[in-house]
Amino acid sequence: MRICINSQTPFVKFKLSYRELLEKYGWLSDPVDISDLAEGEDYDFSPGGVTAMVYPLLKKMLSEGYLSGASWVSLGVEYPPNVRIGNVSVSHVEIPEQVLRDYTTFKEELWSQLHGLSTASIFEKGYEAYVTFNWVNAEAMLQHWRETDVFYVQDFQLLISGGLIGPPAPAVIRWHVPFVPERLPFLTHRAVLKWMEGFDAVVVSTRRDLEGLIKSAYRGRAHQVYPFLDPDAWKTRPTQSGVEETVRKIGLKPDEKLLLMVARMDRIKSHDVAIRALSHIKNQGKFRLVFIGNGSFSSSSKGGLGHGKGALWRAELESLARDLKLEDSVTFLGHSSNDELKASYSLASSVLLTSVSEGFGLSVLEGWLNKKPVVVSTGAGSSELVVDGSNGFTFPAGDDRKAAECILKSIQSSSEKYGENGFETAKQCHISVAADREKAIFEEAISIYK
């Protein structure tokens, strides 16, 4: 079986444009073989849920022989048009600059509504660009239809494409963001349901989102599969030199407890709640709050959408830390290498996720795989896996005082128990469990076409 993935976000983020790569190397094959380039200099694997989940899933299914090949279509401004990464062929689509700007405006407003942050009309500006974005991606996917058994679309940015890419092969959409109908204006709710029904199946992340579809009288096939990680990727411990370098980079003192939050720089993540929580407990111990993560692909000016929300949010957070006289206790690490990330988790006393609204939050699973207690906002989908006082603690979204109380509880003498129990909870989110579920969903979708 062959699969074609489509996502807004590429799983490889190029640091150099295609022209710059050609100038550097003089000649490159078509498609460009990623092994001919230098990771860290020419490109990085993109952070975030889509790449952390879908690429390992593809590799697993390819290695097991379930998939004979895979194609991946995504946006990539000034990227090489065709790239080969192992057994995966990648096609990058480009959109005219003005259309891309208008698409970004529309997409950000739709995203805000899905997260319960806005009720403005989504049809006033940018809808035509959103349709164009979906159409261009659908055209690119259809270039692969002869060798594709199932199209697998990632998230709300490509909602309209489901009705465009049939009937050559079934189309499944993985819905990564929340679906809570009570938050949505009538027209948005109606439009999203209509677009979803253009797919042969939708996969949501949590029971909350599945219940939202049921309450909305969704007429299509819906499945709930928790987001997942490959536990083998976390079995290799960080190097001692990596830990020492991370300690130096953070400025961590021997008597400080490290509170870690791994999340992109985005207002929806509510990093400010973590900073305010720290202000409530700063006299009850010595703490170092560490944020790992830059802006999302939407924030990237190199190959992305160039939206400035990531930088603006970090500036606000830095100002808040200064106002609360916490600038010496809060560290912004930005993007971290895999070894730095592992070192940070190994040093953490507690892992935080303070999002006001979140589809899931893979950092909770990462914390558990490192046997760390977690403190999670009820706005995050992963909170439905947290059992208070057993594998971590939850607090009402936006309540920094309750968050502070939970942080103190999480670092008590019994904190090892929370991490061990969390490690057991995370087993239901292992890639092997999800792969079996997703295979069954693909097979069911394909059977409709037989």
Walkthrough of the structure:
The protein has helices at residues 18-25, 49-63, 97-114, 127-142, 162-165, 186-196, 207-215, 240-250, 271-281, 309-323, 338-347, 362-369, 400-410, 415-425, 431-448, and strands at residues 2-7, 12-14, 32-33, 43-45, 69-75, 82-85, 88-93, 150-154, 171-175, 201-204, 222-224, 257-262, 287-292, 330-334, 348-353, 374-377, 392-395. The chain folds into two domains: 2-228 and 430-448, Rossmann fold; 231-428, Glycogen Phosphorylase B (Rossmann fold), CATH 3.40.50. Helix 9 packs across helix 13 (400-410). A nine-stranded mixed β-sheet has the order 3-6-7-5-1-8-9-10-11, sandwiched between helices. Mean pLDDT is 93; it is low at 296-305. It has 15 helices and 17 strands.
Summarize the topology:
Blueprint: E1 2-7, E2 12-14, H1 18-25, E3 32-33, E4 43-45, H2 49-63, E5 69-75, E6 82-85, E7 88-93, H3 97-114, H4 127-142, E8 150-154, H5 162-165, E9 171-175, H6 186-196, E10 201-204, H7 207-215, E11 222-224, H8 240-250, E12 257-262, H9 271-281, E13 287-292, H10 309-323, E14 330-334, H11 338-347, E15 348-353, H12 362-369, E16 374-377, E17 392-395, H13 400-410, H14 415-425, H15 431-448
Parallel strand pairs: 1-5, 1-8, 3-6, 5-7, 8-9, 9-10, 10-11, 12-13, 12-15, 13-14, 15-16, 16-17
Antiparallel strand pairs: 2-4, 6-7
Helix pairs in contact: 3-4, 8-11, 9-13, 12-14
Summarize the structure.
With 450 residues, this protein is an alpha/beta fold.
